[in-house]
Design brief:
- By secondary structure, this protein is mainly α.
- The protein is 41% helix and 9% strand.
- A hairpin with a 4-residue loop joins strand 1 and strand 2.
- The radius of gyration is 15 Å and the shape is globular.
């Protein structure tokens, strides 16, 4: 792949390499890894531990504190899984908001780092 090519980001729409959890929204299901999700979010880690043998976690209106849309969840997953979609002006605010909601402190730190390195006089973020 040349430096000009965009990397292919996973879609998470089917089982892959040891995936052991399905994150479900109102309109989509994403196959992920409990260990990866648990490392990023202590809140989701606690939810996963409460699942027992169940391999599905609802991230929709049935679980209001975790309610995420499918676009937000996919963007989040593509950011935390290799090849790590970069944080940019177009996604930073949304990722920081999701990070705050899911207690993803490393994601929040990376968003803050992006803002510090790339700030402009008109750039403002609230989360």
């Amino acid at each position: 792949m040349s430096s000009e090519e965009t990397p292919e980001y996973p879609t998470f729409n089917e089982e892959w390499e040891f995936s052991d959890l399905v994150l479900k929204t109102n309109s989509a299901s994403y196959h992920v890894h409990k260990a990866v999700i648990s490392m990023w979010s202590p809140l989701l880690k606690n939810q996963i531990l409460q699942l027992g043998d169940d391999e599905e976690l609802e991230l929709d209106a049935t679980n209001p504190e975790l309610d995420l849309g499918s676009d937000d969840l996919l963007q989040l997953l593509q950011t935390i899984y290799p090849p790590n979609k970069p944080i940019s002006e177009s996604n930073c605010e949304r990722l920081a908001t999701i990070g705050n909601k899911l207690h993803m402190f490393e994601l929040i730190r990376r968003c803050e780092e992006y803002l510090i390195k790339n700030r402009t006089p008109t750039m403002v973020i609230f989360y």
